[in-house]
Amino acid sequence: MDRPTVALIYDFDGTLSPANMQEFGLLQTFDKDPGIFWNKSNRMSSENDASEILCYMKTMVDEARKAGVHLTKENFRKFGSMVRLYPGVKEWFGKINAYGDSRGLQVEHYINSSGLTEMIEGTEIYNEFKKVYACSFLYENGEAVWPGVAVDYTAKTQFLFKINKGVMSIRDHTLVNRYLPEKDRPVPFSRMIYFGDGATDIPCMRLVKQFGGHSIAVYNPDGKEKEKSERLLYEQRVHFACPADYSEGKKIYQVVTAIIDKIRADLSLSSISAD
């Protein structure tokens, strides 16, 4: 392989953005306080012992109908354009791509999120990702009526194996389960870097770390999440805990460029050993 691939895989809410993406205008069309929406959703999940992800998606459809809000793909994308990003995120992809290229590596970016694909499509960074694995709706007459894809913490782990084997389809369950020798897999786990912030990311963080990749817990430097990220570090579920500033020279940039250097060195050593 002339240009081995390195996959950077990101959660979205709390990782690239400081809040749930639905809270940047969309939920306010149902009620002034987004907390009311989440309380309704969580209550539905608790009372029915049901999936929190499916319940938030159903609650969204129910509340939109009551408020007379049209949940079209166009509206989702409009609200997605309002999503605020952490410092440095917009410039991050170009800088890391260039750094990987300088080391003879191809950097690919993926989203692995319980947020909404339709909203991510409206963000200014959507075109940076090779694939977005996230929740999405089914539509009738142009409006969302039912969850089409629901991504919880177990679904997130399956997407890692899809990236590992080069399977882009969310629907597919055949190619991802076929036997493929490690040497033939497009993105070995050792060349994955996973970024996450919450409980739904822990299985992915642990899995990537366990199979030789690197996991980074991201926290809002203006919030109270630092202790949670440092606990993940203490529990050895991640390699690093970093404040959410993606600007050049900041800790995340330093960590990721060092990992890329390590991947390049490991590949060079492996090539020497094979001779």
In terms of DSSP E residues, the strand content is 15-25%
Annotation, overall tally of beta strands = 7
Estimate the mean pLDDT confidence: 94
Structural class based on helices, strands and sheet pairing: alpha/beta
- Give the topology string: H per helix, E per strand: EHHHHEHEEHEHEHEH
Large-scale geometry: globular
- Main β-sheet, spatial strand arrangement: 4-3-2-1-5-6-7
- Tell me the distance between the termini: 15 Å
| Poorly predicted spans | none
How many helical elements? 9
Protein name: Haloacid dehalogenase-like hydrolase
GO molecular function: hydrolase activity
Keywords: Hydrolase
Pfam families: HAD
Characterise this structure.
By secondary structure, the protein is an alpha/beta fold. It contains 9 helices and 7 strands. Strand 5 (192-196), helix 7 (202-210) and strand 6 (214-219) form a beta-alpha-beta unit. GO terms for molecular function: hydrolase activity. It comes from Candidatus Coprenecus stercoravium.
